[in-house]
From TrEMBL:
Gene3D superfamilies attached to this UniProt entry: Fumarate reductase/succinate dehydrogenase, transmembrane subunit (1.20.1300.10)
Superkingdom of source: Bacteria
TM region(s), chain numbering: 16-40, 60-81, 110-130, 150-176, 203-224
SUPFAM superfamilies for this protein: Fumarate reductase respiratory complex transmembrane subunits
Name under which the protein is recorded: Succinate dehydrogenase / fumarate reductase cytochrome b subunit
Species: Algoriphagus boritolerans DSM 17298 = JCM 18970
GO CC terms, sorted: membrane
Keywords, comma-separated and alphabetical: Membrane, Transmembrane, Transmembrane helix
Length: 227
């Protein structure tokens, strides 16, 4: 067994992979948010449809998308492995008596939060990614060029109040997940210092509030516009 395999199979290696994949997914959230905010532009979806087309046809973006799916899978797998390891190694009595004083609610329930987010991702991918790739798509012309009307698919989904409510609730779970995961990733990578850690924690809290809120705002605004 090579040192790479030994490292990845160790508890420290699993935590490092969790941190690295988590930070990549955090970066992906920012990029995805910037693209999705174009849904709110007053151009009836033109900017978003052109953006979606460029994302679908750019070879670099396709490679990144495959990597993103791989990182999500790795993040889920290693989170399960670490959760099982922690449960086996931690005395039950100690865990029950000290959990509320030594950790936050988010850190104690990362498994639940992650499970809800995973369910959301599966529903989200089925409703959008799968339909766009394999479903019957409407098309729209801009200056003589035909584009998939992805905006119409999104607008139809966000006209459903139940889906909008589901989306908003899941963004709440994402906020709690990020509130612990952001700072925890930096700590795992050894980027913690008495001088900088408080700042990283504050940035993480701000990020965990701002990004999910903006994501949740999109379907809410589009639902109101559909009334």
């Amino acid at each position: 067994m090579s040192w790479v395999t030994k490292t990845l199979n160790s508890t420290l290696g699993k935590k490092l992979l969790m941190a690295l994949t988590g930070l990549f997914l955090i970066l992906f959230l920012v990029v995805h948010l910037v693209g999705n905010l174009q849904l709110l532009l007053p151009d009836e979806g033109e900017a978003f449809n052109k953006y979606a087309e460029s994302m679908a046809t750019n070879p670099f973006i396709r490679v990144v998308s495959i990597g993103n799916f791989a990182f999500i899978l790795l993040h889920v797998i290693y989170s399960i492995l670490l959760t099982r390891h922690n449960r086996k190694s931690r005395p039950i009595g100690y865990a029950e008596s000290a959990a509320s004083t030594n950790s936050t609610w988010s850190s104690r329930n990362m498994g639940i939060l992650g499970t809800v987010i995973l369910i959301f991702l599966l529903v989200h991918l089925k409703g959008f990614y799968y339909e766009i790739k394999f479903g019957e798509m409407p098309f729209i012309d801009y200056e003589g060029v035909s584009y998939k009307n992805v905006f119409a698919i999104v607008a139809a989904a966000y006209s459903n109040v139940l889906y909008v409510a589901f989306y908003v609730v899941c963004m709440g779970f994402l906020a709690f997940h990020l509130s612990h995961g952001f700072a925890s990733a930096f700590q795992t990578l050894g980027l913690n210092h008495v001088k900088y850690s408080p700042l990283i924690k504050k940035v993480g809290i701000g990020f965990s509030i701002l990004v999910p809120t903006l994501f949740a705002l999109i379907p809410v605004v589009m639902y109101i516009q559909s009334l």
